[in-house]
Every structure is written in C-alpha cells, then in structure tokens.
Request: fold
Amino acid sequence: MTDALTELLATRDWLLADGATGTNLFNMGLQSGDAPELWNADEPEKIRALYRGAVDAGSDLFLTNTFGGNASRMKLHAAESRVHELNRLGAELGREVADASGRRVIVAGSMGPTGEIMAPMGSLTHALAVEMFHEQAEGLKAGGADVLWVETISAPEEYKAAAEAAALANMPWCGTMSFDTAGRTMMGLTSAAMVQMVDKLAHKPLAFGANCGVGASDLLRTALGFVEAGASLPIIAKGNAGIPKYVDGHIHYDGTPDLMADYAVLARDCGARIIGGCCGTMPEHLRAMRAALETRAPGPRPDLDTIKTRIGGFSSAVDGTEADSADAPTRRGNRRRRET
Amino acid sequence: MSDEEEIILANLSDDELVEQMMDDLYDGLREEIEESVRILLARGWTPYDILTKALVAGMTIVGHDFRDGILFVPEVLLAANAMKGGMAILKPLLVETGAPRMGKMVIGTVKGDIHDIGKNLVAMMMEGAGFEVVDMGINNAVEAYLEALEREQPDILGMSALLTTTMPYMKVVIDTLVAKGLRDDYIVLVGGAPLNEEFGRAIGADAYCRDAAVAVETAKTLVARKHNQMTAG
Reply:
C-alpha cells in the first residue's frame, strides 16, 4: 500500500510545505505560556484558520498543531492524560481542511522533541521516549494524519526513538532536525552524520532534513551538506524567515516574502524536494515561495558564496562537514586515558 | 603507548595528578575525578585549592572547547557530571572551612515561556563551574523572581526565553528591579535562542550569553569584577 505523500512525491518535482505555527497562533491571540495543543479542543475554528492559511497560500502539505503534544511537554500544563485526544483532534481538523481544499493536500502529524535530555547524560530512557512518541503517533493516526512529521530534534537518540515509535504505530514518517549550533544540532550532529544515521534506521523516513535553526542561509548550507554526504532519500528544507530582531519593543523576523521566495528556489537548486518555512513564515511568505517555485526555472546547485550573496551570510564559518580542511576545529589531542 | 598504559592515580605527583584530573574531566570520568579529589585531600590540599586549581580549571578548558565548537552538549554534560562527583565530596568541607564561594545564581525561564532545555544546560554548566544554582523552572512571573531574589540573595539573576513573544518579558523584570531600586544588587544575565547582544543591552541586562559556556565565563568575570569593586569601595 502506498501512502499519500509517496504518491504525491512521485508526481511532483517539489512540494511546498507550510510555515510557522506558533507565530500565526500568537497573532490569533494565543497567550504566551499556554499550550497551543489545547486549542485543538477549545478553539477548533482558530486551528482550522491556521491550517487554511497554509492551504490557501498554496501549501501541498501542512503540519498539525501538535508539536508539543507528547506526555513530557503536556505535563507542564497538567494535560499529560490528554495526549491521545489532543493529537487526534489536531489531525482531525487537519483532515477536514485538507479534504475540503479541492486538491491533494497532505496532513502531516507534527511531533516535536520531548524537551528532555536522554540517558546517559539526562534522565529520559530510550524505552520511555519511544513510549511517549508512540502514544502521540497513535493519536495522530486515529485523527487521520497521512504521515507523521518529527521535527526540531537535536539528539540522534531522540530521532531514533521517534523512528521506532512510527514503526510501532505502523505509520510512514518524515523527520527533520534543527541545526542551530555552528551548523550542527545542539547535540553536535553534523548534516553528514545525520545522513549516515538515517541510512542505518530500520524504519526509514519517507523524507528527512532540517527545520528551524538559524536563518535561511544556514539551512541551505545544511541541505547542501545532506546532498554532499550522498543522501538518497528526499530532502526537506524548512527554514526560518530570517533572524528575529528587536525593534521598538517588539520582535520581528527580518525575512521578507521576497527573501523567502529566493530561499525556496535556492533550496530546490540545492536538492530539496519538500520546501517550506518555519518560525516567522506567514501565508504571504508561502504565497511568494509558491509563485517563485512555479515561475522560476531550476538552476545549478548553488555554492556557499552564491547563497551568501543571494540571501545573506552564515552564523558560523564552518559547519563540521569540513573535517579535513585547515579551518576545522580539533579536539585536544593526545589525551591520556586510563585503562578501562 | 600512553593510551594503553594503566594510570595509577595515587602514584602521580601533585602536578601530574592535577593534569590528569583535567583530562579526566574532559573525558567525563566521574569515578576517577572522585578518586583524585580524595587523594588530594589526603595529601593535605585545601578543599578550595582542589576546587579552583583542579576542577574549575579543568572545566574552563571544557567550556572553551564548547564555546569554540569542538565539544558539544553531550560531552559537556558528562564533564559537568564528573565535576559534580568531585563537588559532592568538597561541598561540606568548603562550608566547614569557610572557603570563599564562587557565587550563587537564581535562574528561571520567564513568564509565558515553557522551553527549558537551554536554561537547564546553563544551570548544569554553572554548577559544573562551582556556582551554587537555584533553578526556578519555567514560566516565572516578575513576582516569582522578586521572591526568589529576596529569599536566596544571589549574586546573579539568570533569565531565559526561547520565544520571540516572551523575550520582552525580561525587560519587564529588569524594569521592575530598577523601579524597586534593586537592579544594582544583582548581575543580570539573559539568554535564549533568538536573543543577541543588542537585545541584552536594549533591555538593560549586564550581558547576553550566547550559550552555556559563555554564561559561565561571563558570570566568572562579572562576579570577580563585583568583588573587586566591593573591596575597592
């Protein structure tokens, strides 16, 4: 049996994913500190409006409002007993909007990190992480999600736990990590190392890639890293609309719709098949991205200088994939070790 | 090959042992650190010297390599864990001997923000560097900060926000401290993914800390400066 995303990928060179969830919900009146997932039950019309914003702007795929819908995060709102319900509702509302769109739109069940540090450094065991992701996955499945969408992960152990949970739920899945620390994830994983990790998974994702992180340029450098590491699965690029700036007491992302349109076309040239935004990416950005992808011809794979010239510089000089170059930082050498 | 050779910690000279402790911290070897701390105590080292010359010095190297993108969070957490093993032995002795404190920090994520992983990392690294840390958790209103500052009398207030929507609340807390005439009693450090130096200055913090390693370095520098000012004044 083929799933909806695989079918759509087979007929299209690129798919437009969605943009920000949090930024949009705050604009609709979500109070800081509240769990967005509770709105799946309490404010369904606003969640429909969120989804419609992406669909009407031309997204082929959108993520459900369930990013923090695992037991570990919901516990912070004393709602850990409602994981299945809130995920199911988030997906059901998505199904409704997608089916009413008059075209094929994929409902991707968002699964964000647990927010805990995994053993042995932290207290979250592999078994417990799998259990939490599995519980969430079953809720999303029951609500009619086409695919599970694991995102913003930093630890390879957590990514693997999510893969196992998707297998237990017998669901296709996609998974992206956030490369926000000098081109690596917070836990030090490089783009090339992610490709190797994904290759070794028993239950492979339909597509993998990067989301969030630091600005659109960094995200494209990561996408190039995937390609250069020989990635065989479709690549996902979901970058932030620029970088947040503090202006007159308010925060806004400095990425304009024009910049995100350039980013989208460059992402395709880098080799990404599923292209979207993350924080700060509003429907007007998505519209500009869709128009650019439809009207501009694909170009050659850009190099880092081209990316820098077109949409801005990088947050760090290197991203960990240049191991043999003179710029690469090295661990203190010749450390004495005790026999173990 | 030195890699193959079994190192008997008790056979090392003081200097060699301190070097070895720095290596063992770097490699996150908790039991070895605990053993070395006991050896130095038995040799008559003061708890304060062990803390500063071996443990804090070793963690400084770890912090620098973290800042420079050579080590990452997993290695740093293991190192901090090893440091904690040594600190558990030293802490009661430090109190007994009335040794000077590194400093105390109250830290919490601001109201509206439920993200805590960055704040937790800073707390762990600060403890690893020998600071006493009181963690207020997530979603703290200004009243909670005031209450914790009053109760704990820390040197440093640390605030974290991951969301662009919650970052401005840091300014609310700082403005309240100013209004109450308390601002200069504390070093205020802010951090969180979307922040930058410009923002830190704009809201009146002493410093913005890009990551946990920078937080530790900044805390050490500013606490030392504060002590100097107090001595001079």
User: Anything to note?
Assistant: The first strand of chain A starts at residue 15 and ends at 16.
